[in-house]
Amino acid sequence: MTLIFGHRGYAAVYPENTMISFKEAQKAGADGIELDVQLSRDKELVVIHDPTVDRTTDGTGTVRELTLEQLKQLNAAHQSKTVDFASIPTLRDVMEWLVGTDLLLNIELKNVVYPYEGMEELVIELIREYGMEERVILSSFNHYSLVYCHRLAPDIETAPLYSEGLYMPWVYAESIKAKSIHPKFRAAPNEIIEQCQQAGIAVRPYTVNRKGEMKRLFKVGCAAFITDDPHLAANLREES
Ligand code: G3P
Ligand code: CA
User: Fold this and answer.
1) N or C end: fewer C-beta atoms under 10 angstroms in the chain?
2) Is a pLDDT exceeding 90 seen at residue 240?
């Protein structure tokens, strides 16, 4: 069965990367959630996509220059049509809730713009604290960081993110010890998905929001995909 990961939770309807978005993704039928992690000024793991808070909150400034206390005061639902207020969660906030569910968790390390020295260690420490090693996939566009994660924690799955066609991605994945790949959906034609999965490399394309694309991935037996609309995906899966 093709698994469904809610991108930043249920971002099509709820404010991205917030607890309400993650909880609604689960209610909508997601098997897992995807979220983005960065480090605050006081080295707390916070769940937010952009290097600044400007787009997704009512504040301004750079995430790494704000303390957790400052970040927690911001409203991450300021432009939402469904929710009045939502705070920026820490990764611990998410783990605390998620550990009592059967959801999978894809943690994207947002460490391309800023490397966030020490972030890999902190994320792995938290995964171990909650005993979530089997349920977490670490992904990043920074593939060096994933190699480092594998060195620190070979038991935790890693998945390189990429947006353009990659030559023989299953060979590449094996070379960096990744058990899966997370390509942009356009970089994941059926033959690539089939070749990867025959080689034992799971494919989870992002961000899949169109019905036709979802149907293609269900039909080819893709391991999973990441979508803003887990409700639509779950309904289509029932029909397929
Ligand atoms: O993990 C898939 C996707 O989230 C990667 O791109 O920019 O939405 O974080 P982005
Ligand atoms: Ca992401």
Assistant:
1) N
2) no
Q: Which residue has the tokens 């994660």?
A: 149
The DSSP secondary-structure symbol of 41 reads: T
Among 202, 204, 166, 173, CA closest to 187: 166
Q: How far apart are CA 177 and CA 159, in angstroms?
A: 9
- Domain of 18 in residue numbering reads as 3-239
DSSP one-letter string for 160-189:
EEESS--SSHHHHHHHTT-SEEEEBGGG--
Tell which one of 37, 161, 203 to mutate to probe ligand 1, the residue whose CB is within 8 A of the most ligand atoms: 161
Question: In the predicted model, what is the mean pLDDT of the chain?
Answer: 98
Please give the tally of structural domains in the chain: 1
pLDDT in tens, 199-232: 999 999 999 999 999 999 999 999 999 999 999 9
Let me know if 143 is a catalytic residue: no
Write the CATH number for 65. 3.20.20.190
Q: What gap in Å lies between CA 8 and CA 226, rounded to an integer?
A: 9
Cα(207) to ligand 2 centroid in Å equals 9
